Structure formats: structure tokens, C-alpha cells
Amino acid sequence: MFLEIITPEKKIFSGEVEAVKLPGAEGSFGILNNHAPIIATLKKGIVKVTDKANKVENFDINGGVVEVLNNKIIVLAEA
Fold it and tell me: What pLDDT is recorded for position 36?
């Protein structure tokens, strides 16, 4: 699936991923391939991204919104 993490200043990540863990406003949650469509608010925390080579990257955010649709994830984050 394809992930983009975008802040008002710049795009901080763009690429194919295996899994994403997000700090949801109601608690953290994960997204895997073929996840159901969702729009959710995010709180301050860490977005944990696992890429196709199982390399893990962490991105600090101060809140935002995530949209998942047709294996594309867009995170609009405050950095």
C-alpha cells in the first residue's frame, strides 16, 4: 500500500509500506494492506512506518488527520 505523510511545510514521507501504526485520538491503531476505508483524527505521538524491507521509521507528529482508501494512506500532520 502507498503512504504519504504531509505537513503544512513539506512532504515528510512518500512510498510503499507494509504497515503503519498511528496515534489515534481514541487510541493507537494499525493499518495493513486492504484496510477498510477510514477517516480518523490523530493526537500528538509517533507514526511508526514499516516498509517493504521491514525497515521501521518513526515520525513525530503533533496531531492531524488520516484517510485510508483503496490501499492509499494520506496523513495530514502537524509537525
Answer: 96
Instruction: Specify the number of domains making up the chain.
Output: 1
Distance CA 59, CA 13 (A): 9
Range of the domain at 51: 2-77
**What's the CATH number where 13 sits?**
2.60.15.10
User: How do 2-6 and 72-77 pair as beta strands?
Assistant: parallel
DSSP E strand stretches across the chain: 2-6, 11-24, 27-32, 38-51, 56-69, 72-77
> pTM for the whole thing?
0.94
Pairing between β-strand 38-51 and β-strand 56-69 as defined by DSSP bridges: antiparallel
